[in-house]
Specification:
Layout (H helix, E strand, L loop, with lengths): L2 E5 H4 L5 H15 L3 E5 L7 H4 L2 H13 L1 H8 L3 E5 L13 E4 L4 H4 L6 H16 L3 E4 L2 H11 L6 E3 L18 E6 L7 H10 L8 E6 L12 E4 L4 H10 L2 E2 L10 H9 L5
Length: 271
């Protein structure tokens, strides 16, 4: 049986579209008969150090770049999956797979910091020279990647982000809230979304805006009609999406837009 190791720092985060997608990739691999094991920072650093943002990011980078090569060197049957863009050392074969969920940073660079553009650009340059597999959420993104990297279509594998959503029960009483799945990245346009909601007629009709996300610094909104939620598991989040009156997503730019697809599935609009 082929063993798969997958970086867990994305998998372990809650209320993140990329994290949910990474967990679904993990489930898809396990359902296909692979032995899947998570590669996490908890085994490398004490919990106290992980609370420091700089140390955590530095450890994450080291874990993404070096740890897969060491593990694959010890066990020739292991395949490594990187959940988001990072191309590890020794990824020049099919024993590595890198997930590219979208190319929005390349299409709309104005919404990304220089450090982000350099990071993504460097990984794309490495992917052009590599022979590793590439996982994408849709044929459209796959064609974008193939064209940009000038690579053969056989390198690209499509795993839909809505392949294993948890079942969601509908509340017996109609809801009075709208939900926004977001984070604090500038391209998410979160402040404008809140301002637009408060300026609309929705609050006067008794609607509340629920912002569900994963934030380094929790956003503070003092209005009674705006609520911020963190830390929901996939089951609870699916129920919140299914029972919301509407999904609000007014990002300045989006790549694939995983929450839109999830909301359509949970509303029964997309099979």
């Amino acid at each position: 049986m082929t063993r798969v190791i997958i970086n867990s720092h994305y998998i372990d985060r809650r209320i993140s579209g990329l994290s949910r997608y990474a967990r679904q990739i993990e489930s898809a691999l396990a359902a296909s008969g692979f032995e899947v094991r998570r590669l996490g920072m908890a085994a490398v650093l004490p919990h106290g150090l992980l609370k420091n943002t700089f140390v955590r990011k530095l450890a994450t980078l080291g874990l993404e770049l070096a740890a897969p090569a060491i593990i694959k060197g010890r066990d020739r049957s292991v395949v490594h999956v990187s959940p988001a863009y990072s191309v590890p050392i020794g990824s020049h074969s099919a024993r590595s797979a890198v997930v590219i969920h979208d190319l929005i940073f390349n299409d709309m660079p104005q919404y990304y910091a220089l450090s982000e553009r350099l990071y993504f650009g460097a990984n794309l340059a490495l992917l052009r020279r590599s022979k590793c597999r590439i996982v994408v959420p849709s044929p459209y993104v796959g064609e974008q990647v193939r064209t940009l990297l000038h690579c053969h279509a056989d390198r690209i594998y499509v795993i839909p982000p809505y392949s294993s959503l948890p079942a969601a029960e509908r509340a017996p009483v109609s809801s009075r809230y709208m939900i926004c799945l977001s984070n604090a990245h500038p391209r998410k346009n979160l402040n404008a979304t809140v301002a637009g909601f408060l300026a609309s007629g929705a609050p006067a009709q008794g609607y509340q805006l629920v912002i569900a996300g994963n934030f380094e610094t929790r956003p503070a909104y003092l209005q009674d009609r705006v609520k911020v939620i963190e830390g929901l598991d996939d089951q609870a989040l699916a129920s919140m999406i299914a029972n919301a009156s509407a999904l609000l997503l007014f990002s300045a730019s989006e790549g694939f837009g995983i929450p839109v697809v999830e909301a359509a599935v949970l509303a029964g609009k997309l099979i």
